[in-house]
């Protein structure tokens, strides 16, 4: 099957698809887009050719213009609204006990899966630990890892205040998942050099999306660290060979509302030229 087809009645030969193709595998021949030699093997399936054509004239074998959501010409986010949206995001550490309806987590993941990934590999594999008792059980493994750290790597453990985290847990406080009912993980193939960045960006999209659904979230760095280093946790997560965890996020209904956006350091920027 041809990599793409062109509706000649619609195509105006403007060459925008060829100019925008990141792999430069579209040639203009006789005024019409044509796949370059070996294009099938090189195409990364990003869909830019389909998305950028003002006439909707080009269809990939795997993606037609009709299957794409239209970019609205009237909707626009002002920089003021964007700043408010980005700066009002907060790490949430107090949650209501009530579970989140699965459809909201699905929605946030669906949107987050549109985050960029190197070579459009889309290596992120989502894992939702929905069952709160399972979350607790997995966090128990994180505490075991911390106890091991305190014993075997006391200097590193001290820097991370792991003694306090373990003491709080022993006292009955959820110092790992902060009482959030769910835990969302981004996993991926450890051999793929693009996995870490893709997982981090996808999880950042997820974190930004959840407040729009009335939810709150916070990165769970302790969980991620334990998932990287602690065999029993990896086993409990059921990660297949070569798969690793690249990020963890607690999520639930926030107990409190934030009213102000705290200041951050002035960015340190080195302008060159
Ligand atoms: C990679 C990463 C790991 C984090 N791990 C934790 C964590 O384990 N527990 C926690 O309570 N907060 C964690 N945080 C949240 C940070 O403490 C938080 O982003 C920071 O204090 C700034 O607050 P803000 O996110 O509300 O702006 C983590 C943040 C990042 C980016």
Please outline what is shown here.
By secondary structure, the protein is an alpha+beta fold. It has eleven helices and eight strands. It is elongated.
Task: Tell me what you see in this structure.
The mean pLDDT is 97. The strands form three sheets. The protein has a four-stranded antiparallel beta sheet with strand order 5-6-8-7, sandwiched between helices. Strands 1-4 form a two-stranded antiparallel sheet. Strand 2 and strand 3 form a beta hairpin. Helix 5 crosses helix 9 and helix 6 packs across helix 8. It is α+β, with helices and mostly antiparallel strands. The chain has eleven helices and eight strands. The protein folds into two domains: 64 residues, Alpha-Beta Plaits (2-Layer Sandwich); 171 residues, NADH Oxidase, CATH 3.40.109. The protein is elongated and about 75 Å long. The longest helix is centred in the middle third of the chain and has 21 residues. Flavin mononucleotide binds next to strand 7 and helix 10.
């Amino acid at each position: 099957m041809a990599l793409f087809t062109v509706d000649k009645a619609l195509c105006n030969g403007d060459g925008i698809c060829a100019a925008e193709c990141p792999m430069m595998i579209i040639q203009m021949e006789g005024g019409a887009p044509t796949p370059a030699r070996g294009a099938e093997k090189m195409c990364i399936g990003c869909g830019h050719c389909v998305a950028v054509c003002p006439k909707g004239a080009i269809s990939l074998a795997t993606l037609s213009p009709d299957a794409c959501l239209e970019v609205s010409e009237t909707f626009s986010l002002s920089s003021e609204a964007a700043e408010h949206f980005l700066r009002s995001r907060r790490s949430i550490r107090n949650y209501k006990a009530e579970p989140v309806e699965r459809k909201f987590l699905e929605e946030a993941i669906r949107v987050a899966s549109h985050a960029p990934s190197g070579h459009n590999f889309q290596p992120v594999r989502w894992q939702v630990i929905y069952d709160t008792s399972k979350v607790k059980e997995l966090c128990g493994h994180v505490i075991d890892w911390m106890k091991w750290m305190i014993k075997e790597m006391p200097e590193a453990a001290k820097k991370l205040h792991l003694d306090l985290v373990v003491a709080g847990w022993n006292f009955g406080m959820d110092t790992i998942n902060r009482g959030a009912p769910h835990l969302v993980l981004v996993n991926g193939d450890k051999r793929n050099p693009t996995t870490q960045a893709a997982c981090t960006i996808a999880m950042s999209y997820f974190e930004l999306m959840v407040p729009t659904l009335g939810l709150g979230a916070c990165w769970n760095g302790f969980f991620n660290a334990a998932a990287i280093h602690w065999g029993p946790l990896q086993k409990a997560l059921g990660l297949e060979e070569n798969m690793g965890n690249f990020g963890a996020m607690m999520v639930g209904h926030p107990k409190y509302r934030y009213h102000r956006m705290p200041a951050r350091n002035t960015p340190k920027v080195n302008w060159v030229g």
